[in-house]
UniProtKB/TrEMBL annotation:
<feature type="domain" description="Helicase ATP-binding">
    <location>
        <begin position="34"/>
        <end position="204"/>
    </location>
</feature>
<comment type="similarity">
    <text>Belongs to the helicase family. RecQ subfamily.</text>
</comment>
<feature type="domain" description="Helicase C-terminal">
    <location>
        <begin position="235"/>
        <end position="383"/>
    </location>
</feature>
<protein>
    <recommendedName>
        <fullName>DNA 3'-5' helicase</fullName>
    </recommendedName>
</protein>
Amino acid sequence: NDPSIPPPDKDTIDALKKYFGHAHFRPMQWKIVRSILEERRDNCCIMATGYGKSLCYQFPSVYTGGTTVVISPLISLMEDQVLGLKVANIPACFLGSAQKDTADVMRSLMRGEYRVVYITPEYAAVGAGESVLKDLDRKIGITLIAIDEAHCVSQWGHDFRSSYRTLGRIRDMLPKVPIMAVTATATPEVKNDICQSLGLRDPQITMTSFDRQNLFLEVLSKTNTQHDLKSLMRETRRFYYEFDGPTIVYCPTRKETENVGQSLKAMGVKCEIYHAGLTNEKRKDVHHRFIRDELQCIVATVAFGMGIDKHDVRRIIHYGAPKDIESYYQEIGRAGRDGMNSSCHVFYTPKDFLTNRYFLNDIQNDRFRQHKAQMISKMEKYLATTKCRRRMILSHFDKNCKSSVSGTAQCCDNCAEKLRAANRAGLSTRVLTAAQMNQDSQVDYSKEAQLMLNAVKVTGESFGIGVPVMLLVGSTNQKLPDRCYKLKAYGSGRHRSEKWWKAFARVLKQEDMLTENKAGGRGGGFGNQKFSVMLTVLSTKGRNWLNKALMSDGKA
Ligand code: ADP
């Protein structure tokens, strides 16, 4: 608790109990609520999922008898919130083109009968919405404008929405009304972008820890769907399997949701698929059955996202590499909102990134494409890392963020693995990455590094990683160019498998010894390719290192 902030008085706590059923504010909540009530200050709140953001913007108008306007991107989410508030005897409504009984609602609104009004960003930005907000402020004075999921305003975030871009006009339109931007995930860049684009004036910035200590993080290799998923389930009776609690499986494509859904159904799991291609009714039905525990699992694309109102999701499985760290953290944030231990697993193969990278070509703006490419690389690093995964995610949002669970068995597979270094059983299902290589910290892999870098060099740095690896293991695959058979390096890495070398190459990429270059058109690795390919090449660091190693070999 911040000692410079006076605690809430009895009246305030009584209102908190009466309308929200809570005995205390959480520390950040009171700091924010107070700044609205007493200073009418702008706020930018970055709060981990489950901290209680909605209370921050709902309380001020409930307490003062005013009206808060909440701008939120998802109609179903707003409907749920309105319902929740009504149940708690807090008058609330949703305004928008889909709204029925608008005339009645509008009359009550202008008489100040609603404590909380939800609108979409599209509605807020068009003429009709604008004049409603102006009228409302003139007639009753708006207590606060809250902009939920505010990261959508930023192109640097993971979920940019163009309708959010126009929300900056609200500040000019209603200069005296305090604005509160709230989101669960924002990097420092996104935070700055939010404050700037929304025209916040000297905002109070509040950040709770991003660390969701009850989430265990794990990365596994993708092989066969049933086999992979079974490893996370228990067999209830012969050939029937069950997850340990409500589970969401995210897939990169609709088609993949169908495949995975079928596999799970074949194992007797009560599950349904969810994606943007289904009708609204169907999606609502699936969501509600999941909330009521009639379904154990939803297999979804990321369309199943914001607005999942289920606090006891125990597992989030990404079947296929997630898009980037921010999206990933937002997606796994849906697990364990009740504070109970939950786990998050990714099954992936390096191939998953081919599709992600392919779509980069559609981005026109150079700087933006570069940014997206960096985000993809960061995700790759996350999946391949041998270090603490939690630390890696947290430092993406805040360089100084540390976690007290880091290094313990409840943190992530890498931390747990290190603790279980003595017990190597079960490694076969794990991604063959540095995770296994680094466990023996005694083992020196410099010879292998030299072989690998050399193989890339002598094949002319004009291929992906496949050709250098085939060269190392002495492959007879037709894809290996004829001239390679004569090279001294041919077969020099026979003591390891192709899979091992490929994993090792990923480690070298992580260590910035190898890097990727985009080669377009003809003249790429295989001569007559018309599409662009990624070539594995030596980085400056790798080249220097290799030269030194070769030199000391020469001296020896
Ligand atoms: P967020 O939007 O930040 O994910 P919610 O507003 O949905 O979080 O709140 C998460 C949970 O925390 C809800 O169940 C809510 O009732 C509870 N909560 C919020 N504030 C408090 C509080 N001051 N004391 C106890 N529980 C709270």
